[in-house]
Amino acid sequence: MAPILLPLLVSRNGNVAVVGAVMAAFNLGGLTAPLWGNFADRYRLHRGLMLGGLLVTAIALAFFPFPPSLVIWLVLAFV
């Protein structure tokens, strides 16, 4: 749902360049998955890291419609 909702939310308040930047940050955040997987394997934190990641992602998506700043949108999309 996030790849569909993020551009829709941003397009209401920004232009095409802003939508592209937010989607780039979203995809860049996805590229960090191997780092998190390596961390989970090394310290055997699979459940805790999964739960923490889901909570952080849910919080970021909950706050995503509210910030008026591009920088905050980029940080939330990266998360």
Key terms:
single chain; 79 residues; mainly alpha; 5 helices; elongated
Report on the architecture of this protein.
The chain has 79 residues and is an all-alpha fold. The two termini are 15 Å apart. It has helices spanning 2-13, 16-30, 33-43, 46-63, 70-78.
Question: What's the topology here?
Answer:
Elements lengths: L1 H12 L2 H15 L2 H11 L2 H18 L6 H9 L1
Oligomer: single chain
Q: What is the general shape?
A: elongated
State the separation between the terminal residues, measured CA to CA: 15 Å
Q: Counting H and I runs of at least 4 residues, what is the number of helices? A: 5
Structure summary:
The protein has 79 residues and is mostly helical. The protein has five helices and no strands.
